[in-house]
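Problem 12. The chain below contains 245 residues. Write out its predicted structure in token notation.
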Amino acid sequence: MLPTTASKGRGAARPAPPLFGPYLRRIVKWQQMDIEYTFWQMVHLCTSPKVQTKNQWARDDPAFVVILILFLVFATSAYCAAYGQSASHAALTITSVVLIHFLFAGIVLATLCWFLTNSYLREEPNSHVVEQRVEWLYAFDVHCNSFFPAFVILYVLQYFLSPLLVAHGFFPALLSNLLFVVAISYYHYLNFLGYDVLPFLDRTTFFLYPIGLVIILSPLSNDTDRVQSDKILSKFVLWLVKADD
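Solution.
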């Protein structure tokens, strides 16, 4: 989650030990995952993202990633069942959503943010403070936190609204675009919170700039004379589900 009790002073943070080894080992040990705490995190990401964690930057428990992947599998399976896809196409869709939409995109975005924060957004250390850097695993945690509310909007809410969204007309197209604007904007807002809380980073408002770009560009995709609402909806999961049509 997003630790917020630490101040922007330099003495508040300390570098965390490497977590890749224990993190990966715990993926196959379900008994060691804190499932209850993970669900609590997910609820608060959608309602009140500024909450305290276990006084460390990177998550040492893979339960959040594992449960989010299971949610993606269930949600995508529901899309495939609703649109009557074959078992083979459903398997391909689920694999694409998990590996490309979530993991691959997350690795790329986390690596980009990790590079930007460490290269351009860190405050200059002085002689009395140990130099601190953003861990890559923390950057991936921020992506996972930011992705979950977008998942709720674009996979869950959009699923229940899909009978309306696939209809032709201005209102379905407008509503479809609105869902994307809200989901993407909230993703970048949580991304900003994840880095703004680190006391050794500066100019983190940079991560809010994509929100303005999304708001400016969203009306351009709302031209129903050129783009039908079902094509707008296919930007995300239905693009895979209806790819064979």
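Discussion. Residues 1-17, 223-238, 240-245 have pLDDT under 50 and may be disordered. Students who got a different answer should revisit the alignment rule from Section 12.3.
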